[in-house]
Design goal:
Layout lengths: L1 H13 L3 H77 L8 H12 L9 H7 L10 H49 L20 H5 L2 H38 L4
Helix pairs in contact: 1-2, 2-3, 2-7, 3-5, 5-7
Length: 258
C-alpha cells in the first residue's frame, strides 16, 4: 500500500502536476489521520472492555459476599431478638412482688438472655475493595454511594454489638458474686463448650434465692441497660440488612454477572 502511494506521488511530480499533487498529499494526510483515529478508537474500546471485565469480577466477588452475609445477619438478628425477649421477661420478674422461679431456671434465663456469641459479619472483600484502587474501577456512582453508606452503618453495628459484649463483663462480675462462679460458668458453657471441660469438677447446686436476685436494684439496672443495648444493636442490624439487600438488587439490575 505504501509503495502504491509512493508511485502515485512520483508520477504526479514527474508530470509536473503540482495542483493534483497537493490535493493528493492533503488526501493522504487525511487518510493517515483517519487511520490513527480509528486505531486509537479500537485501542480505547479494547481498554474499556478490559476495565469492564475487571469491574465485573470485582462486583461479582462483592455480591457473593453480600449474599453470604445476608444469612449471617439474619441469624444474628434472630439471636439478639431472642436475647432481648429473655431480658424483657427477666425485667418483668423484677416488677412482680413474688416469683416461684427456680434457681436453675433463673440461671438459664440469664444465660439465654445475656450471654451470646461474638459479632463477626463477613466484610473482608467489601473492606478490601472499598479501601484500594479497585473501588475506582466501579463506574456507577450510585453503587459507590451505597457502599460508603454501608461502610458507615457497618461500623455502627460493630460498635453497638461491642457494647453488648463489653457489658457481659459486668454481668459476669455480678454473677460470680451472687451465684457462685463455677455454677454460673457451667451454665454458660453448656451450650458453648464440650461437657468434658467440667469432667471431674465438683459443681454444687446454686444456693441463692431467686427472689432476692430479681428484687435486687443492681440486677434490674444491669438488665435495663442491656435491653437498651439490644435495641440499639437490632436497629443497626436492621438498617444493615436493608442496605445489604438494596445493594444486591442494584447489582442485579445494573450488572450481568455470570
Amino acid at each position: 500500500m505504501i509503495k502504491i502511494f509512493r508511485r502515485i506521488r512520483q508520477n504526479l511530480i514527474m508530470e509536473n502536476k503540482t495542483g493534483k499533487y497537493l490535493k493528493y498529499a492533503i488526501g493522504e494526510i487525511i487518510l493517515v489521520v483517519i487511520g490513527i483515529l480509528i486505531a486509537l478508537q479500537i485501542n480505547n474500546w479494547n481498554e474499556n472492555r478490559k476495565t469492564r471485565v475487571k469491574e465485573n469480577v470485582i462486583v461479582k466477588s462483592l455480591n457473593d459476599e453480600f449474599i453470604s452475609n445476608s444469612k449471617y445477619l439474619e441469624q444474628r438478628f434472630k439471636t439478639l431478638s431472642s436475647q432481648k425477649e429473655n431480658t424483657q421477661y427477666l425485667l418483668s420478674l423484677c416488677s412482680k412482688n413474688h416469683t416461684d422461679i427456680s434457681a436453675d431456671s433463673l440461671l438459664t434465663l440469664i444465660v439465654n438472655g445475656c450471654i451470646g456469641p461474638g459479632y463477626s459479619p463477613k466484610a473482608s472483600t467489601f473492606k478490601r475493595i472499598l479501601n484500594n484502587e479497585e473501588f475506582n474501577l466501579i463506574r456507577l456512582d450510585s453503587l459507590k454511594a451505597l457502599m460508603n453508606q454501608y461502610s458507615s452503618v457497618l461500623e455502627l453495628t460493630y460498635l453497638t454489638n461491642k457494647m453488648i459484649l463489653d457489658d457481659e463483663e459486668i454481668l459476669h462480675a455480678y454473677s460470680n458474686d451472687k451465684f457462685g462462679g463455677i455454677a454460673f460458668g457451667k451454665k454458660i458453657n453448656e451450650a458453648q463448650l464440650p461437657q468434658e471441660l467440667f469432667t471431674g469438677v465438683e459443681i454444687k447446686e446454686p444456693t441463692f434465692v431467686p427472689n432476692d436476685i430479681v428484687k435486687d436494684p443492681v440486677f434490674e439496672s444491669i438488665l435495663t441497660k442491656r435491653l437498651l443495648y439490644y435495641g440499639f444493636a437490632l436497629n443497626r442490624l436492621e438498617e444493615l440488612q436493608l442496605l445489604n439487600n438494596t445493594i444486591q438488587n442494584f447489582i442485579d439490575i445494573h450488572y450481568s454477572l455470570k
